[in-house]
Amino acid sequence: MIQPLRTIYVRASALDARRGWLRAGDLVVPCALGSGGIRSGKREGDGATPRSILPMRRVWWRADKVARPATSLSVRRTHRDDLWCDAPLHRRYNRPVKAPFEASHEKMWREDDLYDAVVELGWNDRPPKAGRGSAIFMHVARPGFRPTEGCVALRKRDLVRVLARLGPRTKLVIA
Questions:
Q1: Do 111 and 121 form a contact (C-beta atoms < 8 A)?
Q2: Which residues does 11 contact at the CB level (< 8 Å), separation at least 6?
């Protein structure tokens, strides 16, 4: 396994603020960003990717879709009942939860392949503050690198390559 990097970087494209470049050591790959571009003062539902330095928490992976990722991060298998609470006033805001769950949430088990491998990033999570944004992940990009809701998204093959360079001390600098 590759020695984990201390820092990886994301910068917006000069031509389109909803797209950018991720640099992990000598690896530079295109990425999709939030529909609101990179922004300070992230809020729930604004579509922005937060300008910040984010720790890597863990990787979620769909064992039925991809091989267990080669990474130094902790890895968690995604199950059909895994959800993520995005209801700002709920006590489980910006936390993983299990179905059935009545409050607003995002499904971690998706049919569109976007969450076949997901890096859970440490945004607004220790402790979560209502309305500052939830579920900021690094995940698989939509075709054509269409914008995300605020995440950083890569081609699946590039995400797998980046995962091999991540460890528990790696930080993602979004500038």
A1: no
A2: 20, 21, 23, 175
Using left for φ > 0, alpha for ψ between -120 and 50, and beta otherwise, residue 131 falls in left
Is residue 160 within a helix (H) or strand (E), and if so which, with residue range?
Answer: helix 156-163
Closest of 109, 162, 169, 112 to residue 141, by C-alpha:
112
Rounded alpha-carbon distances, angstroms, from residue 61 to 116, 156, 159: 5, 12, 12
Q: Any idea which residue has 């130094």 for tokens?
A: 72
Three-class DSSP category at 157: helix
Per-residue pLDDT of the chain (175 residues; tens, 9 = 90+): 689 999 999 999 999 999 999 999 999 999 999 999 999 999 999 999 999 999 999 999 999 999 999 999 999 999 999 999 999 999 999 999 999 999 999 999 999 999 999 999 999 999 999 999 999 999 999 999 999 999 999 999 999 999 999 999 999 999 9
How much is the pTM? 0.97
| Other C-beta atoms lying within 10 Å of the C-beta of residue 109 | 16
